[in-house]
Specification:
single chain; about 120 residues; alpha+beta; about 30% strand
C-alpha cells in the first residue's frame, strides 16, 4: 500500500511563476514532518544527482531556523524506499553523514520524534 494518492504524479511545473522575481524561483521539499512546532525536512536525490544552487540555499536557510532539522537523502522510492546515505544539513551548509541504510534513516526519524518533537514540547 502506498500513502501517495497518485504514485505516478508528475513534478509540479512552476514555469508560470518564473519572472515574478528575477532572483528567485519556487522550490519544493520531498518530505516534511511537523510535531509540536518542530519540523523535520528532507530532500531526496538519486545517486550523482546534484542539488541546485536554489535548493542548497533553501535547505541551508531552513537548517538555520531553531526548530528545523534538515536532511539530504541519497536514494529513491522507485521500487520501495531505498536509502544509500543521508546527511544532516547544518546551518553553515556543511553536511554530516548520519547513516547508510533505510533502517538507520528510520531510527533517526524515530529519534527525532522521541527526543526533539515530543520531549522539547513538555
Amino acid at each position: 500500500m502506498s500513502l501517495m494518492r497518485n504514485t505516478h504524479a508528475p513534478h509540479i511545473d512552476f514555469t508560470e511563476l518564473y519572472g515574478i522575481s528575477n532572483k528567485c524561483v519556487p522550490s519544493n521539499v520531498d518530505m516534511i514532518y511537523e510535531r509540536n512546532g518542530y519540523f523535520l525536512v528532507a530532500e531526496w536525490k538519486r545517486e550523482n544527482e546534484l542539488l541546485s544552487m536554489g535548493q542548497s540555499i533553501l535547505l541551508k536557510q531552513l537548517a538555520s531556523q531553531p526548530k528545523f532539522v534538515v536532511l539530504l537523502v541519497q536514494g529513491n522510492t522507485d521500487d520501495g524506499m531505498k536509502v544509500d546515505e543521508f546527511w544532516l544539513i547544518r546551518s553553515d551548509g556543511r553536511r554530516k553523514s548520519l547513516g547508510t541504510s533505510l533502517d538507520a534513516f528510520k531510527r533517526f526519524i524515530k529519534w527525532w520524534f522521541d527526543e526533539i518533537a515530543e520531549k522539547k514540547h513538555e
